Automatic annotation (TrEMBL):
Pfam families: Fer4_9, Flavodoxin_5. PROSITE patterns: 4FE4S_FER_1, 4FE4S_FER_2. Keywords: Iron, Iron-sulfur, Metal-binding. This is EFR1 family ferrodoxin. GO terms for molecular function: iron-sulfur cluster binding; metal ion binding. Residues 178-207, 208-236 form the 4Fe-4S ferredoxin-type domain. InterPro entries: 4Fe4S_Fe-S-bd, 4Fe4S_Fe_S_CS, EFR1-like, Flavodoxin_dom, Flavoprotein-like_sf.
Length: 249
């Protein structure tokens, strides 16, 4: 079983590629009961993006509830983190969370993909994005080969020490404040952002989206999938840097 969380499609794409190669099936964490029952010799994969050097808050919450029921032996459990600049300490983060649930994480891998954090990163050039995704395909194939061989240990590139969570945690918490979002007049009140938010932080009121929670996951799904690009974050950089979703998802 391959579990994934994905907002703009990068992790969904990687999860589906891995599952196809392993003749396995994929399940979104948003649609999955955290109590899992694995078949004999079945492996468990977790595919996630990297937010602020760490696991997204949604993935952390899922792993904190994860249970493996009825497993007769320790399965091969692996993590794959997509990232733009660094997978940070996602591997160690996941290892600790799973260990607290009595689950041993066998290995961790990383795949460089377009960074969807458009308050900083510019994704308006389709050729640039295409080249990154082409290189990602080759990386995913290498990860598949290692998973097939049941390679163990933290195999992530560009990872950083877990100690950096002391800086990353407060930065992520601050950035997750929904007060950073605003809506432009081009909004058509289509309800897509409301339906797509993984933590139900958005409601349509008087025809416009309103953030009803102080914090969200910061996945930017609402921004990147808005048909009118009416949702923006921060000082206006997102408008210049464009929208993104993986072309094959």
């Amino acid at each position: 079983m391959i579990l994934y969380f994905s907002a703009e499609g990068n992790s969904a794409y990687a999860a589906k590629k891995i599952a196809a190669a392993m003749h396995d099936h994929v399940v979104s964490m948003e649609k999955c009961d955290p109590v899992l029952s694995l078949q004999e010799d079945e492996m468990l994969g977790i595919v996630t993006p990297t937010y602020f050097w760490q696991l997204p808050s949604f993935v952390r919450a899922f792993l904190e509830r994860l249970q493996l029921a009825g497993s007769h032996q320790s399965p091969y459990v692996f993590l794959v983190a997509s990232y733009g600049t660094t997978p940070g300490f996602t591997g160690e983060d996941a290892r600790r969370l799973l260990a607290a649930r009595g689950i041993h994480m066998s290995s961790a891998f990383s795949v460089h993909m377009p960074d969807t954090w458009t308050p900083v990163f510019d994704l308006h050039d389709p050729e640039k994005v295409k080249k990154i995704n082409q290189k990602a395909d080759a990386e995913i194939e290498r990860v598949i080969a290692k998973i097939t061989a049941h390679i163990t240990g933290n195999q992530m590139a560009r990872r950083i020490p877990y100690l950096m969570h002391r800086l990353a945690d407060p930065a992520y918490s601050k950035a997750r404040r929904t007060s950073h979002f605003h809506v432009e007049d081009t909004c058509i009140g289509c309800h897509l952002c409301e339906r797509n938010c993984p933590v139900q932080a958005i409601q349509i009121k008087d025809g416009k989206p309103v953030w009803v929670k102080e914090q969200c996951v910061l996945c930017l799904r609402c921004l990147h999938h808005c048909p009118k690009f009416a949702i923006q974050y921060g000082d206006g950089s997102t408008k210049k840097h464009g929208q993104y979703h993986h072309p094959d998802i």
